Amino acid sequence: MEVVASGTDAGTLARHFGDHQLQVTTTPSGLRIEVSSETEVDAIISALRKAGGKLVAVQPLRQSLEELFLEGSGVVESSSPNTIGI
């Protein structure tokens, strides 16, 4: 699942979310947060409220065609510089 949010930053969200590991990508419009299960979505929404952020969208996470190709060819893509684990 993917949660898209605005109005806060990754550091502030991390302080309100606790010790859980998250994949957070900073985008021009806010944050893109990957969660491994639907049960984590409620915790993310609660942390967003505490951090003063706004929920933009919750949607299933889908791989791009490029990611599927790279995965199928065995090529490992390096992490994006604006992606952090918190």
Mean pLDDT: 81
| Widest β-sheet, arrangement of strands | 4-1-3-2-5
Order of helical and strand elements: EHEEHEHE
Largest sheet: 5 strands, antiparallel
Strand content: 25-35%
Distance between the termini: 16 Å
Radius of gyration, in Å, reads 14 Å
Count of runs of 4 or more consecutive helical residues = 3
Relative helix content: 25-40%
Number of domains: 1
Using the alpha-carbon principal axes, give the shape. elongated
Total E-strand runs? 5
Low-confidence stretches: none
- Coarse structural class: alpha+beta
Folded structure, characterized:
The chain has 86 residues and is an alpha+beta fold. It has one domain. It contains three helices and five strands. It has helices spanning 10-17, 39-50, 65-73, and strands spanning 2-6, 23-27, 30-34, 54-59, 83-85. It has a five-stranded antiparallel sheet, with helices on one face. Helix 1 packs across helix 2. The two termini are 16 Å apart.
Give short descriptive properties of this protein:
86 residues; alpha+beta; five-stranded antiparallel sheet; 3 helices; 5 strands; 28% strand; elongated
SSE layout:
Blueprint: E1 2-6, H1 10-17, E2 23-27, E3 30-34, H2 39-50, E4 54-59, H3 65-73, E5 83-85
Antiparallel strand pairs: 1-3, 1-4, 2-3, 2-5
In short:
By secondary structure, the chain is an alpha+beta fold. Helix content is 34%, strand content 28%.
